[in-house]
Design brief:
The complex is a heterodimer of chains A (about 260) and B (about 200). By secondary structure, chain A is mainly α. In chain A, about 85% of the residues lie in helices and about 0% in strands. Chain B folds into two domains: about 120 residues, P-loop containing nucleotide triphosphate hydrolases (Rossmann fold), CATH 3.40.50; about 60 residues, no CATH class. In chain B, about 30% of the residues lie in helices and about 30% in strands. In chain B, strand 6, helix 5 and strand 7 form a beta-alpha-beta unit. The longest helix of chain B is centred in the C-terminal third of the chain and has 15 residues. Chain B starts with a strand and ends with a strand. Classes of the chains: A mainly alpha (about 260), B alpha/beta (about 200). Chains A and B meet through helix 7, helix 8 and helix 10 of A and strand 5 of B. The structure holds adenosine-5'-triphosphate (ATP) and magnesium ion.
Chain lengths: ~260, ~200
């Protein structure tokens, strides 16, 4: 059998196995309030998906989280460049980034709620999770640039932009990719946690909060399933995009 | 013109270059020889402004400078042809020109390969193609013909000699035959300088 197919089949088998475990556990518990079954959750998800509000909710949440993440990526790359160039900036910002990483996200959410409007908190929180990771990886990528290649650029008198595009950026890109791989999920989950606590209108967090309020366990599961699927999809799309940037740069020189 | 005046470089206790002077006019070709670790690469790095000497002055009036380093120094994320094109216009306009240079160095079949897919000797030849392609006014080559068999070395030497034109050449080599093949005046290391 071809290895890709066999790998896909094995994955499918694993998924089926765990879904069966869930189904058996639900049957054993026998109470939808405590642990709804697969079928009930799927039905609920389909029912939700047939309402306009569901899609509007998804769209608004995605917009909030992505706004936060993208701003954090831009800011993280810029601060990475800054701390690479300036020792003072590095000494000033490193402890801040460490602090950001080790402070419980709930503290930030409460604080942000005091400072910002309800709609802005999830944006801010999602970004806050991503920023230190992107910063650290950008800094590592910059520190890892081969000095021999920079000497080459200097001898052949590359303009600054060319050095950046041909040497700096390709050296940083793999680190950025790794940062996104680990930080996207973080930002996504933290953004939704922030929504649960701030309940902005049309948000997945508010829907989860309300499901909990009315003990709608099945609905909670359905929303959670939607979040998991979305997070998976978004990670795929964004990593594809990042790769696309790298490839376009390659294709550019080739054509 | 390249003018190195009374260059001194020391690394820790070791005085590598000691008031070493070297002048290179347009079209002049000079080879530096000497035992391993004597300071040949160091002098080349000073000439390329990659190393600040402890004392002495460097002035360089050449505009287009190219170098073959002791290592190939290819960008790993670019193909052989892209690596050569990099020092031309770095755009589609000169891709053919870059390929032609690779062809001259017998790498016509490898132009779309990445450095990791090339042998050490092939990478070295890409690096030579990259240095010859822009038609430099000053060419610095640090042991460029190592890792080549006799016959190939002779052919690469001929390509290099043809491409040089009236470029000034600073060649570092352990092999005086190479130096003569490229029409170089040979300088030997003695007491912190090349004479
Ligand atoms: N960055 C450095 N730090 C400390 N010592 C150095 C450095 N670069 C070179 N040296 C020392 O300077 C001396 C000359 O080095 P250089 O690389 O110029 O030798 P070379 O003549 O090119 O030798 P080879 O033929 O082996 O390439 C050596 O003793 C080396 O140890
Ligand atoms: Mg050397």
């Amino acid at each position: 059998m071809n290895p890709a197919l066999s790998k896909a089949l094995r994955r499918l088998a694993v998924a089926v196995f765990w879904l069966m475990v869930w189904q058996l556990a639900a049957a054993a518990v026998g109470k939808e309030l405590l642990l709804p079954g697969l079928e009930a959750v799927l039905k609920k998800l389909i029912a939700l998906a047939s309402t306009g509000a569901f899609w509007r909710t998804l769209a608004r949440t995605i917009l909030r989280v992505l706004t936060g993440i993208l701003s954090a990526v831009v800011l993280g790359v810029l601060t990475g460049l800054l701390t690479h160039k300036s020792r003072l900036a590095r000494e000033l910002l490193s402890p801040v980034m460490t602090l950001l990483k080790s402070t419980p996200v709930a503290s930030f959410i409460i604080l942000a709620l005091v400072w910002l409007g309800r709609d802005a908190v999830p944006v801010f929180i999602a970004g806050l999770m991503v920023l230190p990771v992107v910063w650290a990886n950008t800094a590592a990528g910059l520190a890892g640039i081969d000095p021999q290649l920079l000497e080459l650029a200097s001898v052949y008198r590359f303009p600054r932009m060319k050095t950046f595009r041909r040497i700096v950026w390709p050296s940083v890109l793999p680190h950025l990719r790794a940062a996104l791989r680990s930080a996207l999920g973080l930002g996504w989950k933290a953004g939704i946690a922030a929504e649960v606590l701030t309940v902005p209108p049309y948000s997945i967090g508010k829907s989860i909060y309300e499901a909990k309020l009315y003990l709608e366990t099945t609905e909670l599961f359905a929303w959670t399933a939607a979040v998991v699927l979305l997070s998976f999809l978004i990670e795929r799309v964004i990593l594809r995009l990042v790769d696309g940037i790298g490839r376009k740069e390659r294709a550019h020189a080739e054509s | 013109m390249l003018n190195l005046k009374e260059i001194s470089v020391r690394f820790g206790e070791k005085q590598v270059l000691d008031k070493c002077s070297l002048r290179l006019e347009k079209g002049e070709r000079v080879a530096l020889t000497g035992p391993s670790g004597c300071g040949k690469t160091t002098l080349a790095r000073v000439a390329l402004s990659l190393h600040n000497p402890d004392s002495g002055t460097v002035s360089c009036g050449f505009a287009r400078i190219a170098a073959v380093f002791q290592e190939p120094r290819l960008l790993p994320w670019l193909t052989a042809a892209e690596n050569v094109n990099l020092v031309l216009s770095d755009s589609a306009r000169t891709v053919e020109e870059a390929r032609a240079w690779l062809e001259r160095l017998e790498l016509g079949d490898s132009s779309t390969l990445y450095p990791s897919e090339l042998s050490g000797g092939m990478q070295q030849r890409v690096s030579i193609a990259r240095a010859l392609a822009p038609g430099p006014e000053l060419l610095v080559m640090d042991e460029p013909f190592k890792a080549m068999d006799e016959a190939l070395r002779d052919r690469v030497l001929r390509v290099t000699a043809d491409a040089l034109g009236d470029a000034a050449l600073l060649l570092i080599t352990h092999n005086e035959r190479e130096a003569y093949a490229l029409g170089c005046r040979v300088l030997r290391y003695r007491d912190g300088c090349f004479v």
